[in-house]
Protein 1
Amino acid sequence: MNDQVGRLVDKAWDRFQQTPADRRFMIAIGGIPGSGKTTLSQIVTQALNTRHASQHPGAEPIAAFVPMDGYHLTRAQLSAMPDPATAHARRGAEFTFDGPSFLSLVKALREPLTTTIFAPSFDHAVKDPKENDIAIQPGHRIVVFEGNYVVLDKEPWREAAGLMDECWFVEVDFEVARRRLVRRHVKAGIARDEEEAGKRADENDLVNGRQIVENRVTVDEVVVSRDDESWRPE
């Protein structure tokens, strides 16, 4: 993996080694849509598990990956809002997420390591969250969170960020992010073509991105994503 990611993995592993055995080491990785934060989070989680396995052959994974996507409000909840058309059009904006439930999860993971705690995932086939789909077991002593708003300087996200051991932010040029988003939206069937995908990126994703960039908490690391190959292993 590249030097930037390798340094982050080394740092996380070293800090984890200093974490008391009865608590978790938790990282939040934020960034604008299209920044590469999801890919980075997955690579970091996998690298930490690989390192643990090299030292403890046959052991269960030590790190769990928890994306924020499971905290999208459901389509039914968006339809019940005062302006449902805007709510659906702006899905992905901060107000279309269940921040209090995300904070409750983070608080629960700060409790003693006694029971399995479940988080929701996002089912892209039905376009809604899937409850209790991610199992965070007592043996998962490292948890890597990622999402647009995990380091947003607004409650309840601010309180959740304050409970993390490390907060990282993936910085990317907006034009790079836009190109990635256009490809992603077309591939996922969110948009019919590049024109429609570009309109969605400009009117929703990058509007949200400006809020994310302009209103983030103080972070421990700013990670620069320069191109589409930046997180890939060498």
Protein 2
Amino acid sequence: MTYQTLIIGHRLPGVTPSEFKRRYERHMAHIREMAGVHFPLLHRRRYIQRADGENATVIVGPQADFDYDVLAEMVFENEDAAKKFYGILGEEENAKWIEQDESGFFDRNRVRLVVLGEVEVTERKA
């Protein structure tokens, strides 16, 4: 059974949604290189649509509930694989690079990371 986590990320004030996405994608390319074979099986990033650059395109719920900018899902082979990945990111040189890079676009004080549980899927029948 895979081990899955979810990251809820926010951009820093003054960073536009498009700049945030550009920087985060470049950041993730470097993280992938850094982690090598210990990179997750999947690292999917879903960016919140912001029609005017600030307000989310909300269908139901208050605008204030959508203050985050990205939901990122990571899928690992198992919990040990996740621990290896996080261990690599926590190595002194890597952690220093990550903190320095994120300081220009990613609000580290508001980031959330949680382990996901069971997944259920409902698909439309053909």
Protein 3
Amino acid sequence: MSSSDLSHNTTNTNNGNSNGGGYSNEDEQDYRTMETQLEKLRKDLEYINLNFSKFKKSADEVAAGSRDLLLHTLDKSLGDLRAKALTPALKAKQKTQLKSRIRVLSDIVIKLKLHIPNLSTIASAAGTINRVDVGFGLDDLQVIDELPDLHYNTLFNQSYAFQDFRDIYSSLDDRTKLCLLCFALIPENEVVKKRLFVYWWVGEGFSSSTSSSSPLQGGEEKTYEKMGDEIFLKLVKTGCIEAVNKKHRLVADTYKMNPFIRSAMIEFAKEARFFDFDEKGNPIALNPTADFSTCHRACLVLSDSSQKLLRTGSRSDGSPLDHEKLQTIFNVNEPFPDFFKLEWFSKLKNVKVLYLGRWKNSASHHIEVESGVFLKGLRSMKFLRFFSLQGISRITKLPDSVCMLSSLRILDLRACHNLELLPDGIGSLKQLTHLDISECYLLEYIPDCLALRTPSP
């Protein structure tokens, strides 16, 4: 691939007569904007070529990108558009087409840049290569020492690629941004099911149903799934996440996030105070923290300090945490999530998402509790919409306190292999639309109040 594939006609176009081509000052501003975009893309391509030339393993990605890039002779198109006297309607049509093609090329370039391997390896291989030589003001080849610690580098958020992705992130609507921020909790390249995020977004209120159908009749399921599909489609299209197609599946139901993008998402999550993360030097670096002093969400993390924080409900300096501001608790990797004190658990009055179960696809991600006593504290969670105990061992019966969750929409009990009984009063949950009891092999019966209703798939 060569940047010469994009001709330089625009730089030779005669701009002396602003009306010579029959275009206005507004047209000229549009043309200059597109010229700037094309020049930026040309420099990007030189940078990509410079890096990919050192790595034969990436030849397939480069070849695929080159085939796409050869379809675009955008410089010539812009030069022709400026030079020709066209009718207003035809000129507007061709401008729209050219802008669309520039957007397509920009997407291709972003995806190619994300295929560039570990930049510290590139720096070693490239030797004395200096990015300034191809028109950039920052030497990104020196930015990163180790990919897993990417976002801790002081130059990471000044890097050219990071700023490019910030532009993509900024272009998303607010709801899609919030949905994407949830991915910051998931380790890079970890494959996650779509269902987890769709339910999570419903619980947070990012995705709400407009269906008027009655609970557990399937109508709201379709609405949630449809809205989730729209968000996932947008995130994949913009390169924020990658679909992972399983064998024998025509439509992807699992996704993962590129390490570079996940590092960027950590920065955005911290900026938005969506989640907080451990500082550099912590043995569990890159993990979100149980501390929710600066946000409304806490994570269960395999750490003595995290357990101490959530057991006591106070920081290391002794100052108390405000339990009532918590809206989400998510179990990242804590295998024993029953360390809560009952009285502390009972203070979580405004929690909307309580995910205590397993989110990884692997059954080796083992979670168990000694008893379900702490779950009696659920009775105070009047705003809880999504509650997951998925894959937790040694839960034999749900407490009656579950029946007091008046706002509960989604109850996820999938793969609770020891579960034997559901409380008879569970039918009182009028807002319940999703009940997942798949793989609950010891469940003796379904209460009559539910048996008469059509369960969600």
Protein 4
Amino acid sequence: MERLLLVWIKDKEITGDTITETAICQNASAIFGDLIAQATGEGTSTPTPDFKASHGWFDKFRKWTGIHSVLRHGEAASSDTKAAEAFIKTFDEMTIKEGYSSQQVFNCDETGLFWKKMPCRTYITEEEKKLPRHKPMKDRLTLALCSNASGDCKVKPLLMYHSETSRAFKAHNMLKEELPVMWRANAKAWVTRLLFTEWVNLCFCPTLKKFLEEKRLPLKCLLLLDNAPTRPPGLEEDILAEYSFIKVLYLLPNTTPLLQPMDQQVISNFKKLYTKHLFKRCFDITDTTNLTLREFWKEHFDIVICIRLIDQAWQEVSR
């Protein structure tokens, strides 16, 4: 019964249906009843076993199978699976008809980064009863990451911050024009239509044209975007005339969680690499200087160091 039940659960996962403990228990009872009826109908003399789909049984079943509860976010829960499947078919036909290679198809997506947020839990020795209070820092920025489908052309990211200038630039003798990101700012550190268009013309287009010429590829490109409010609906009209060979294709509403290429572990791997390099930096500082981790974090870890870690992590995202 439990093996048949696991098959049913996997089928529900594929269709995207919500599966609750109550639904699993009810279906377990139904499957068990069908198996008993089938066995009884075959004239077996085996005593009928007693089974109750209780919470205790469910807990053992969960541990045996490894199933676990996850939060279904509103965006993913409302995804239009049929529209996504239709879009994939249309997209394939379009790329074949227009002759786009994987090197000529690009995708861009935004993500928030709490660049100065430490983990809220830590391990301590038995002698220590508690950790001294630590005030969490939740300074946030927004990044727009862009790459082609083949993974061999990564564009300079757009970085949105809440401050136009930072004292860290002066401390590191750094100009914003020399940063490995395009630095822009507004009060909420959000990407706007105007700033996104500016990034397309100043960063994306020149990088793309140079890449295509170096690879001796035809000057054609397809930029795949979601339908977020920050995306200009007429972006092709705002692109400079010398880059008119760039075509823009928007994902259909309610299909982004299913289709957005940068969400297929690209952004998540970038954040893992950022965290890895961040903590390596922390270990190096505490091992080679007299600074404590708290002192480094509060007084020496600034936005310029953060940008360097962002660039390092972005360059290390593999093809």
